[in-house]
Amino acid sequence: MPTIYEVAAAAGVSPATVSRVFNGANVSPEKAEAVRRAAKEMSFTPSRTARTLRLQSSEVIALVIPDIENPFFTALARGVEDVARAAGYSVVLCNTDEDHEKELRYLDIALSATMAGVIIAAAGGNSDLSGLIARKCPVVAVDRSPHGVDVDAVIVDNRAGGRAATQALVEQGFQRIACITGPSDVETATQRADGWRDAVTGNGTTDDRYLRFADFRVDGGATAMSELLALPEPPDAVFVANNLMSVGALRVLSEQGKLPPATGVAVFGDLPFLPLVPIPITVVHMPARHLGTTAAKLLLERISGDDQPARTIVLRNQLTPVG
Amino acid sequence: MPTIYEVAAAAGVSPATVSRVFNGANVSPEKAEAVRRAAKEMSFTPSRTARTLRLQSSEVIALVIPDIENPFFTALARGVEDVARAAGYSVVLCNTDEDHEKELRYLDIALSATMAGVIIAAAGGNSDLSGLIARKCPVVAVDRSPHGVDVDAVIVDNRAGGRAATQALVEQGFQRIACITGPSDVETATQRADGWRDAVTGNGTTDDRYLRFADFRVDGGATAMSELLALPEPPDAVFVANNLMSVGALRVLSEQGKLPPATGVAVFGDLPFLPLVPIPITVVHMPARHLGTTAAKLLLERISGDDQPARTIVLRNQLTPVG
DNA sequence: CTTGACGGTGAAATCGATTTCTGACAGGGT
DNA sequence: ACCCTGTCAGAAATCGATTTCACCGTCAAG
């Protein structure tokens, strides 16, 4: 790894001049050319580490997500990346696995590596962003807005989405509509369940025996579905609050020969890789990529010094009717 | 961001002592305690940037993949992450989008940030790893082994997998077996197609009109399938060389009412989120996570100084029969 | 009582880039 | 001829941690 000093020596100038060439300051054409030749010659790349240390900031933003294997979050990541790259920033992806400890570790890294900012889909509700806030590190919450701290957030209207999905089941004539949602300490999970409750109230059984808190994963969805079907009076329809759990739920329904249209199914969030649509289910489409691009834009604004009070942007979901 | 100097001042010791406390060198219990108290008090975190600059290496490894939205690569990423984290390393994910320029940029970053090592699923065959090699930066190739350079690699037997998948179609009695594979400059694509050719030779039409080079993406798979079906004598079966393209291909087959078992379908690689298995297709299961864990282990060995000649590890695929 | 070893500590050099400060020099106006 | 302005370039300080080197006690062996 050649350094700026070696390049300077080779080009017969001072390190300061080399730095100026690479940062677009005023340098005479001849010296600039000499520097560029020497740099190319020895394939010199300025050390980001040294640069970051000196400037106390880097062009890297951290994207902290709870589950890298969920297509929703990878689509979101693509959105973030597109915007960030266009602005000259690199994105590093941090997978927390819904684990607060891992999350905290990554936030620590973001700080101690003086990253430019953080976009976070918090694991659980009570993520500790206090360190970032105290250090004035720009933060944008996405998909889930953490409890208690006031930061920019980009979310969807979970309650309205849950309500609309459930409402669709009501209109299809189902009577006992169950709900499988995520962990009770995750805001998106409870809000979607609230939407379900809104829609079933007065339109069927609101009985909380039909409500299951699972884990936003395939197996959790399957387990919850099995439990529901084992009830004395099993539900005739189910609203599943995320994409992965719907996979599990549908598997169980399939095993028991109760696939739609026998059972009504509405899902919050899409599964991008279904080769065909053999089964009629209602889907609340999530603008995953837009969540990412929007969050990235907000973050870039903050990074460039914008310090207006925190904003919350609510994107719209779209309901795909049964088809 | 408090520095080691401020902690030293608060604890009444020298910065050297603070450093020693945090790195487990010999320090008297009282001073150590004082340092720890002061550090906690002002919630001090050592600057990774400074540390990295001084040590000329960081505990971060870069994982460079061509498509973060492909479940295969995210599963692989999980594997890498599990092993890396257990060894105290952080993983940063770099998505190249099959773009050589982006890839080169990320490799440059890895170098200039003095990362501990790189695991790369190369975009296209002729990725330029020469910079890494010249700088002796540990590299492990995964899934695809780059052309021309001799580095550790963890791969699967693509040709054997392609042959087995196609052979299964032969045994099911299909006559005109087509092949949809990836870009012709990606090794995995051509090898899988070679496997197809092995199996169809003498067992049906080897006509290269039945061979399509697509892009390893959903839409590419769909387009290729449409073209194949539009042939004067369309194929009665198809071997699709990756998971995403199979989604597109099956969509087209569905639209034309030619879903399996009417058409034979065999796929290299799995789609994890199929809620049910309504259609009988043959799947070559890829050990994605194992590819990741194995690659990470190799890399860690290299990082800790192992300099034996490069190795190639070939993992086994498993054929899931029609079901 | 001297010598050597050793644990504990601080001062200062170091990693590689950026930037301020300063000086040299050229050109234009009076 | 003199001053002022402006451009270009180098010396040196700086970012924050690590580590070498030197030094001081203390204690044990001779």
Element layout with pairings:
Two copies of one chain form a homodimer.
Chain A: H1 4-11, H2 15-23, H3 29-41, H4 48-55, E1 60-65, H5 71-86, E2 90-95, H6 100-112, E3 117-120, H7 130-134, E4 139-142, E5 152-156, H8 158-171, E6 177-181, H9 187-200, E7 211-213, H10 218-229, E8 237-240, H11 243-255, E9 264-268, E10 282-285, H12 288-303, E11 312-315, E12 318-320
Parallel strand pairs in A: 1-2, 1-3, 3-4, 4-5, 5-11, 6-7, 6-8, 8-9, 9-10
Antiparallel strand pairs in A: 10-12
Helix pairs in contact in A: 1-2, 1-3, 5-12, 8-9, 10-11
Chain A binds a DNA duplex (30 and 30 nucleotides) through residues 1, 3-5, 13-20, 22-23, 25-28, 31, 46-56.
Q: List the chains of the largest interface with their residue counts.
A: A-B, 54 and 54 residues
Question: What is the CATH topology assignment of the largest domain in chain A?
Answer: Rossmann fold
Q: Tell me, what is the CATH class of the largest domain in chain A?
A: Alpha Beta
- Secondary-structure-based class of chain A equals alpha/beta
Low-confidence stretches of chain A: none
Into which percent range does the helicity of residues of chain A fall?
A: 40-55%
Biggest sheet of chain A: strands, sense, closure? 6 strands, parallel
Q: Quick one: how many beta strands of chain A?
A: 12
Task: State the order of secondary-structure elements of chain A, H for helix, E for strand.
Answer: HHHHEHEHEHEEHEHEHEHEEHEE
Question: Counting H and I runs of at least 4 residues, what is the number of helices of chain A?
Answer: 12
Widest sheet: strand ordering of chain A: 2-1-3-4-5-11
What is the CATH H-level superfamily of the largest domain in chain A?
A: Response regulator
Please state roughly what percent of the residues of chain A sit in beta strands, choosing from under 5%, 5-15%, 15-25%, 25-35%, 35-45% or over 45%.
Answer: 15-25%
What is the assembly state of the chains in this entry?
homodimer
End-to-end Cα distance of chain A: 59 Å
Radius of gyration of chain A: 25 Å
Number of structural domains of chain A: 3
- Rounded mean pLDDT of chain A is 91
Molecular shape of chain A: elongated
InterPro entries (chains A, B): HTH_LacI, Lambda_DNA-bd_dom_sf, Peripla_BP/Lac1_sug-bd_dom, Peripla_BP_I
Pfam families (chains A, B): LacI, Peripla_BP_1
GO molecular function (chains A, B): DNA-binding transcription factor activity; transcription cis-regulatory region binding
Organism (chains A, B): Catellatospora methionotrophica
